[in-house]
From TrEMBL:
Keywords recorded for this protein, A-Z: Signal
Name assigned to this protein: MAM domain containing 2
GO cellular component: membrane
UniProt xrefs under InterPro entries: ConA-like_dom_sf, MAM_dom, MAM_domain-containing
CDD domains hit by this protein: MAM
Record Gene3D superfamilies: 2.60.120.200
Stretch forming the signal peptide: 1-18
All copies of domain MAM, residue ranges: 24-169, 168-217
Keyword Signal: yes
Gene that this sequence comes from: Mamdc2
Length: 217
């Protein structure tokens, strides 16, 4: 009986872990959860201590790319894709900043659809919230970093999270981080930003199949 109880607890914990990380998600705790760097480009490097992946000037030059590709995903209903990221640039203005792009690649298409893009540097992690339309086709998510100008440029991804349903508003005042736990640093706050923030805008037309701005912010 006791053993059974222990087993049940273990199973419940395993289930909880599985639920913590739905397909298309990764917290970069120990690995990249099936998000693999595309061989033709530079790799995203896993920082196991900080639990993020990054590219920076220690191994990349201006204009070089690192591309992360998810495993096959399916979305039978609308999903919310959240990305926690940070772009850093050296002080002062740069004419060619680093850029982070997110694409969707459908199984039967030979091109990638750009869903979201940002060049906005920040002192803190930012959260981009992107609504993903349901589709009967399998797809992969591509996350591309293009290193910009400057000797201290970097791009880092802290978490990718895909959850069922539309994106809901994240609220920092009430310490509600859209289900994210601020594991990074208690002294550093996250900002709600990216796809739906006022200072960043989607480069897609509103009538595109995928709408990254869904009126939730
Ligand atoms: C998306 O979901 C709606 C509602 O369930 C359904 O009517 C529609 O056919 C779906 N679209 C695709 C492309 O699967």
């Amino acid at each position: 009986m006791l053993l059974e109880g222990v087993l049940l607890v273990v199973q419940a914990l395993q289930l909880a872990n599985a639920l913590d990380l739905p397909a298309g998600s990764c917290a970069f705790e120990e690995d990249t959860c099936g998000f693999d760097s595309v061989f033709a480009f530079l790799p995203w490097i896993l920082n196991e201590e900080g639990h993020y992946v990054y590219m920076d000037t220690s191994f990349a030059r201006q204009g070089e790319k690192a591309v992360l590709l998810s495993s096959d995903l399916q979305a039978e209903e609308w999903n919310c894709l959240r990305l926690v990221y940070q772009i850093t640039t050296p002080p002062g203005s740069v004419s060619d900043p680093s850029q982070l792009n997110l694409y969707v690649r459908f199984e039967d298409e030979s091109f990638d659809r750009l869903l979201w893009s940002t060049k906005e540097p920040s002192d803190s992690w930012l959260i981009a919230s992107l609504d993903l339309q349901n589709s009967s086709k399998k797809f992969k998510i591509l996350i591309e970093g293009v290193l910009g100008q400057g000797n201290t440029a970097s791009i880092a991804l802290f978490e990718i999270k895909m959850t069922a349903g539309y994106c809901i508003e994240c609220d920092f005042e009430e310490n509600h981080l859209c289900g994210f736990v601020n594991r990074w640093n208690p002294n550093v706050n996250w900002f709600v930003g990216g796809g739906t923030a006022k200072n960043t805008h989607s480069i897609l037309p509103q009538d595109h199949t995928f709408r990254s701005e869904h009126g939730y912010f």
